[in-house]
Specification:
This protein has six helices and five strands. The chain is of the alpha/beta class. It has one domain: Rossmann fold (3-Layer(aba) Sandwich), CATH 3.40.50.450. α5 links the parallel β4 and β5.
Length: 145
């Protein structure tokens, strides 16, 4: 079974999680979500339960540990599925995309309806999709998944 790292902005995590679980059932492809599939993320649990807000939460996480963990998790996958939107800023998502595409030279599938013409997006993507449904249809039509 193919497995892809799921890179996406923090603020889209709940919306993406709902889609991700259905996508996995429909396609048989595993999507590794760093916010939910990486062991016990107490920070995400507190946020998702509404017990803290991102503005008031003081995460004492070690930044290097987070980055290294994400890079190791990308290395374990067959490629990357990435959500990039102009109005949803993320520093990690483009870094994860670059690492997967240029350093590891693996498949990078990008979902965006606002950045598809950007030279960096076009230069790093294996294929660009305007929405989640078109990505799913692409994988369902592929013979090698």
């Amino acid at each position: 079974m193919k497995s892809y790292y799921l890179a996406h902005p923090f603020e889209m995590r709940k919306e993406i999680r709902d889609w991700e679980l259905d996508f996995e059932k429909r396609t048989g492809i595993n999507l590794f979500n760093p916010f939910y599939d990486d062991g016990e993320r107490k920070d995400m649990q507190l946020l998702d339960k509404g017990l803290v807000s991102p503005r008031t939460m003081k995460i004492k996480a070690d930044a290097i540990k987070i980055v290294n963990r994400d890079l190791r998790n990308i290395e374990k996958q067959d490629g990357l599925v990435c959500f990039i939107e102009l109005n949803k800023a993320s520093f990690g998502t483009p870094m994860e995309l670059f690492y997967n595409s240029r350093i590891l030279q693996r498949e990078s599938y990008i979902i965006t309806d606002t950045m598809e013409g950007h030279p960096w997006i076009k230069g790093l993507a294996t294929k660009i999709f305007p929405n989640k449904e078109s990505l799913e249809n692409y994988f369902l039509e592929k013979d090698d998944i």
